[in-house]
Amino acid sequence: MGKQMTEMLKGTLEGIVLAILAVRAAYGYEITAWLREQGFADIAEGTVYALLVRVEKKGLVDVEKVPSEKGPPRKVYSLNARGQEYLDEFWGTWSFLSERLEQLREGGR
Fold first, then answer.
1. Which residues, at least 6 apart from 94, have a Cβ–Cβ distance to it below 8 Å?
2. Which of 7, 52, 63, 95 is the most buried (most CB within 10 A)?
3. Looking at the DSSP assignment, which residues form a beta bridge with residue 62?
4. Which residues form a coiled coil (predicted)?
5. Nearest to 55 by CA among 8, 17, 25
6. Using CA atoms, how far apart are residues 63 and 32, in angstroms rounded to an integer?
7. CA-CA distance, 21 to 52, in Å (whole number)?
């Protein structure tokens, strides 16, 4: 991933992770694996875990400890109502920005 992609991703990764959790509950490694499958090959697991700690502290997700076959219980995250509101706002902002960027790309029409 280039530097420009890394910088843009920093500003959107929280919304991306919340969008994943809007579809289904998941634990950190599952989220990281899905992101990598989608082409975000350079996403570090630590980046995702740090983000999950932040969204948990903000009260945007619910966390359930689920027994693991190997090692300690896994923390499974799911989007809660407050997180859904935050995600809705993210999508609204994304739509606004993407429309303006597309206008600029088309020559300001």
1. 12, 15
2. 52
3. 78
4. none
5. 17
6. 17
7. 11
Contacts of 47 (CB under 8 A, 6+ apart): 13
Largest CA-CA distance found in the chain, in angstroms, rounded: 57
Rounded distance between C-alpha atoms, residue 28 and residue 53, angstroms: 10
pTM as predicted: 0.89
Spatial distance between the Cα atoms of 27 and 65, rounded to a whole number of angstroms: 10
Look at residue 61 in the predicted model and tell me its pLDDT: 98
Tens digits of residue pLDDT in 35-70: 999 998 888 889 999 999 999 999 999 999 999 888
